[in-house]
Amino acid sequence: MQTLAQPVRSVTRLARSSRPGRTTAVRTMAFVNSKQEQLCGQARQFVETWGSVASKGMDAVKQELGEMIADECTFKADRVLYTKDLKGKQAIMQALEREHAKYEHKTYYPVAVAADDTHNTAFVGVAWEYKNVGPLKEGAQPSGNTSRGFSIKQLTFHPRSGKLTESRVNRQMTAEEQQELLAPGAKCQPADVFGDVLPKLGWGAQQASEQNPPVADAEFAERMSSSLKTWVQCWSSDADLDQLNKVLDPALMAYDAYGLHHAANKPQREGHAISMMGRDDARAAIEGLHKKFTDRNKLLASAVNPDQRVSDTIAAPALSRGLCF
Q: What top-level branch of life does the organism fall under (predicted)?
């Protein structure tokens, strides 16, 4: 992240739900210059529009998104929930229709946004609640059940037009997707993001100061960025894993969003297993990976939000990781 010598501006927005009983949630954006502020705003607007079909209607949302998305835009597949890239505005609009035909978006909320202006990229953490209202495959009946979870979006915008040119998403599975995609009897214990992570991002906070937004610590943001780079590098086979002691807190807790890499000997929180606990556990997990694979990790883009002590990265060959400090 560039220009960290400048004070990091952290703007807290207070958003109230129109639904009775919905707890007030806090959205935070962090940026160090006007370019990052612009990217954060564009990303937040895209996410909020994508999830607003229930309130605005499909035609209105498609019209708004059409003005935000470049004709040559590509949605990169995560190879878990989506196996093929989507190329072009028409394909993306069709995906929007399919998604909302299957799931009513009861909640679709950007709880944290940060930007990497070097790569014209913003990262958004989205809390969602989906009600299954349509079949996932032909002949199936919708369950009518509601799932909730978290997704990390990486959105890249054209440097001149400001339109979205590429999107990558990592999303937790819904209950129906788990049943559809996993082998019979497969054990799936996804991270309880609403219980374990979102409270750290301000979800459920009752009040926030918007008149006098806090000024985040630029030095702390720089330390976050440095730790982030070291953490990504340590997943490469030739890395010095002793560096983990410098960047990992002794009380490290790692949650697996997909719920497929849980560890049976780790504590559980309402059935949601923890995949790593502490530095030694993290080192053992990385060493285990290195015994099976030759890995070369390269950090492609990253952004930090010092106000909420969270960051997002995109690295090759791994995709997005959401980290809390």
A: Eukaryota
> Residue 294 contacts by C-beta under 8 Å, 6 or more apart in sequence?
237
Report yes or no: 188 and 201 within 8 Å, Cβ to Cβ: no
Q: What is the CATH number of the domain that holds 226?
A: 3.10.450
- Do 125 and 274 belong to one domain? no
| pTM attached to this predicted model | 0.76
Query: Residue 290 class from Cβ within 10 Å (0-12 exposed, 13-18 middle, 19+ buried)?
Result: middle
The backbone region for 284, taken as left when phi is positive above 0, alpha when psi lies in -120 to 50, beta otherwise, is: alpha
Do 69 and 188 lie in one domain? The reply is yes
As a dihedral over the C-alpha atoms of residue 77, residue 83, residue 87, residue 90, rounded to 10 degrees, the angle is -110
Structure-token match 């002590």, residue found: 309
Contact 59, 96 (CB under 8 A): no
CATH of the domain at 129: 3.10.450.50
What's the distance, Cα to Cα, between the start and end of the chain in Å? Answer: 17
Give the pLDDT confidence of 187-244 residue by residue, as tens digits.
Answer: 788 888 888 777 766 665 433 333 344 444 667 778 888 888 899 899 998 999 999 9
- List beta partners, residue 28: 12, 112
d(CA 145, CA 19): 19
CB 279 within 8 A of CB 97: no
Bridge pairing between strands 103-116 and 25-31: parallel
- Which of these, 236, 219, 209, 224, lies nearest to 297 by C-alpha position? 236
Give CA–CA dist 173/152, Å, rounded.
13
The rounded distance, in Å, linking the Cα atoms of 216 and 8 is 5
Domain span at 116: 8-201
Cβ neighbours for 86, distance < 8 A, ≥ 6 positions apart: 74, 75, 77, 92, 95
Give the angle 64-69-72 at the CA atoms, nearest 5°: 150
